[in-house]
Amino acid sequence: MPKVLISDKLSPAAVQIFKDRGIEVDVKTGLDKDELIKIIGDYDGLAIRSNTKVTPAVIEAAKNLKVVGRAGIGVDNVDLPAATAKGIIVMNTPFGNSITTAEHAIAMMFALARDIPQANASTHAGKWEKSKFMGVEVTAKTLGIIGCGNIGSIVAERGIGLKMKVIAFDPFLTAERAADLGVEKVELDELLKRADFITLHTPMTPQTKNVLNAANLAKTKKGVRIINCARGGLIVEADLKAAIESGHVAGAALDVFEEEPAKTNILFGMEQIVATPHLGASTNEAQENVALQVAEQMSDYLLDGAITNS
Ligand code: MLT
């Protein structure tokens, strides 16, 4: 009977699926790297979210490991070359949390447009600063989406529903898909020049890393607002800070940071920054979806050799 270790907090539904499929499952969360290395040799499968770091040392100790399943999209916490060299399949669940992450981006856009977190803190503090918080409407504004795949296209639909003009930069977006979505496909420079709100929805790759750096921020419209619920390294935080301090960028809503967990950050404490701790996928629905999907996919592989989303 194959044996799976769940080493991050996953919906209990995943445990049930493994059991129903005849797979033995242990749940051990919060292991440090030495503890994981000590026990990983017992397992055929490892189910994770983002906390567990699957390093070359973990892979080296994983004598029986056949599959790592990431309940979520990014596999940044898995050393892919080391896993591949050992013939270990790494799979993710690319669709289960798309709606949830898109909704977080929209929530962040409104938080930014209307200073909701700042006004909330001020009101709780008994200040009643009614005249301090003057927002902007999103209706008729241009929403620039960088990366119009699973999540970006849901954001596009929501933006259109909010009566925004939606433009998108994505080299993989076909003209037909753009037309179906009702978005205008543009080049990056055009998007930077026209957007009132810019939202990022690309994975972190060598091509996308630092896409919002000083040079590109300088091409944006004065007063632009930026939302990032994708990956921290897409924005150069020092350059964003400088662009906010100069008054060029009106503000940014960030769910992700160059270094995570972000206990400190050069942007923290700035009035124009709305920050959440990588909550993009954190809804009951999304966590249930990704847990179920990863458990089914891993079971299919361990029992029948069927590979999905690797
Ligand atoms: C993902 O890659 O699925 C998201 O960033 C969410 C997460 O890591 O929890």
Automatic annotation (TrEMBL):
Record's catalysed reaction(s): (2R)-3-phosphoglycerate + NAD(+) = 3-phosphooxypyruvate + NADH + H(+); (R)-2-hydroxyglutarate + NAD(+) = 2-oxoglutarate + NADH + H(+)
Species of the source: Parvibaculum sedimenti
Function noted in UniProt: Catalyzes the reversible oxidation of 3-phospho-D-glycerate to 3-phosphonooxypyruvate, the first step of the phosphorylated L-serine biosynthesis pathway. Also catalyzes the reversible oxidation of 2-hydroxyglutarate to 2-oxoglutarate.
EC numbers: 1.1.1.95
EC top class named in words: oxidoreductase
Protein name: D-3-phosphoglycerate dehydrogenase
Entry similarity comment: Belongs to the D-isomer specific 2-hydroxyacid dehydrogenase family.
Sorted UniProt keywords: Amino-acid biosynthesis, NAD, Oxidoreductase, Serine biosynthesis
Molecular-function GO terms, alphabetical: NAD binding; phosphoglycerate dehydrogenase activity
Pathway annotation from the record: Amino-acid biosynthesis; L-serine biosynthesis; L-serine from 3-phospho-D-glycerate: step 1/3
Span within the parent record: 1 to 310 of 525
A biological process term (GO) from this entry: L-serine biosynthetic process
